[in-house]
Amino acid sequence: MATSLAKPKPVNGEADQQLQRVETLHQQLKAEHARAQELLARLKGEEYQAAAARNPPPPPKAQDWVRDPKALDKKVAEFRKRAEKLEKAAGVKNNALDMGLPELKAEEREIRDLEARVSGLEGRVRGFEGLPPDKDLALLEVEKMRKELETLARRRDAMFEGLVEGEK
């Protein structure tokens, strides 16, 4: 009888379930702690410190703008006015802000077409590398290369005929 009183019995296994839950939570906390320690080590590492040195914090005024949206709106309006004045002074017109999505997509297509055309032209120009800038000298160089090609072609044909005759 004394042993049965000394040993507490769980009521419907609730204590066992709670103990299991606590153990599971403990394991999850251990894993989370390990990840946090790893992150802390990375943040203290050289790579993060170098990146932090390259990207200094924003100036105090910019921080104020983030905290106060009204001040930010005023600054945006001020910068737009400045940009408009500069565009007028330079004679440049920026319609990107006035364009809708279809116009931007059309302009993007035009730009891609132009890029493709430029790359094609660059490929054609690469064919003229090594030629002198003077047209007459370039024509002479091309003629010289054409003769060399013909000589090599004749030599190849002769070698091929020699191989064919050697097999017979």
Residue ranges: pLDDT <50 for 5 or more in a row? none
How far do the termini sit from each other?
113 Å
Mean pLDDT: 80
Number of helices: 7
Indicate the structural class: mainly alpha
Q: In percent, how much strand structure appears in the residues?
A: under 5%
Biggest sheet record: none
CA-based shape: flat
- Return Rg in Å: 39 Å
Helical proportion, percent range:
over 70%
Strand segment count: 0
Strand/helix succession: HHHHHHH
What is the strand and helix layout of this fold?
Elements: H1 2-6, H2 14-44, H3 46-54, H4 60-67, H5 69-90, H6 101-126, H7 135-167
What report would you give on this structure?
By secondary structure, this protein is mainly alpha-helical. 80% of the residues lie in helices and 0% in strands. It has seven helices and no strands. The longest helix has 33 residues, at 135-167.
Short key terms for the protein model shown above:
single chain; 168 residues; mainly alpha; 7 helices; flat
Short recap of the structure:
The chain has 7 helices and no strands. The chain is an all-alpha fold.
